[in-house]
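To assess whether the prediction recovers the assembly geometry, we first specified each molecular entity separately, as shown.
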Amino acid sequence: MKLVYTGKTKNVYALDDGNYLLKFKDDCTGADGVFDPGMNTVGLTMEGAGRACIRLTKYFFEILNQKGIPTHYIDADVDNVTMTVRPAKTFGAGLEVICRFRAVGSFYRRYGDYVEEAAPLPAFVETTLKDDDREDPPITKDALGNLGIMTPNEYDKVKALTQQIATIMKDELAKKNTELYDIKFEFGRIGDEIVLIDEISGGNMRAYRDGEYVMPLELEKMILDN
Amino acid sequence: MKLVYTGKTKNVYALDDGNYLLKFKDDCTGADGVFDPGMNTVGLTMEGAGRACIRLTKYFFEILNQKGIPTHYIDADVDNVTMTVRPAKTFGAGLEVICRFRAVGSFYRRYGDYVEEAAPLPAFVETTLKDDDREDPPITKDALGNLGIMTPNEYDKVKALTQQIATIMKDELAKKNTELYDIKFEFGRIGDEIVLIDEISGGNMRAYRDGEYVMPLELEKMILDN
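The predicted structure of the complete assembly is given in tokenized form:
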């Protein structure tokens, strides 16, 4: 088992059968000890964060696989805080695909002149490059095509898949009386197939209950212990 | 003649016949006395800047009108540094449409991991909101539609028109041995018609001769005095 990548919140190992093993850490993105799913830096280490992450990821990926959504997920081992996945290639050095049901976060910061805070959005999709040095710049369908990162046809598939998956996630959260405001995904290619990759945990989404933001570790409890 | 708008580089007056008169100033965008067409602030005042702007704007709009491009331009008075235009409504509080033939400026700053500086681009189009407080945030076709600023159908028209006009501009500059790297336009609606508005001057574009950036006032001389 060979370490092939050391990430901010997990390490990636190559397995002998060609698949990968992801080992989750207890580090969370944020700044100065405050958790922020929108940040690029590791801001704090919370005991149990890795375990919460793998439990939620396992829970959601199994729902998605059952519904026929193409994903990289094979299985997860909660005790060892690991997940086995198929070997997908990222688009460029990684592309984040955000789906928004309400105007909060950077969407509201950018477009506050045209929208009320938390106004409903119709599964609006936008994409940003994973590039810490350039603060994850936003990128359009046309630019992705011009830079050879993703073809226009692939973009349309990724957008449709994102809206489908985000809607499944929204419905799952609604069953627990929690509202999904926005969520970010990452996709990859396995041959010609486009699949959902990475994790699906509290750090990937903004969820609210009774108008109050739900912290990631609380979200895990709300979803899995109710 | 009633002053209806005071801009950074020009004032706008309403005429009795329903048209508008634009009066150009000698102020240029930039910072600390250095001209920068990408900036939002007035950085310096250069004597003759207004006159250079109106001369170039008149020159280019007359070429475009002749080629059947829909614009707001009626005529210009170089001595009085004014231009008469049809009354167009901006998209939202104003939308800048950028067309890029080479990867420089903010495009290169954002996507430098995927493109060489000054690499050719195929009349790539992107849009930013005019919003000084939010530093002109980039915005996608989908977001423009969701926020009610521009319909997807209008976006497609504006994109095609932008590529057509930018190519005309590129050809005009090439006649003067100058290469157009990028250019920004603004469009507006007159009823259902979409027309090119604002000005077309050195401050709207990056032009290079023999690999060297041409300053706006030099550009005026190169285009009009050769």
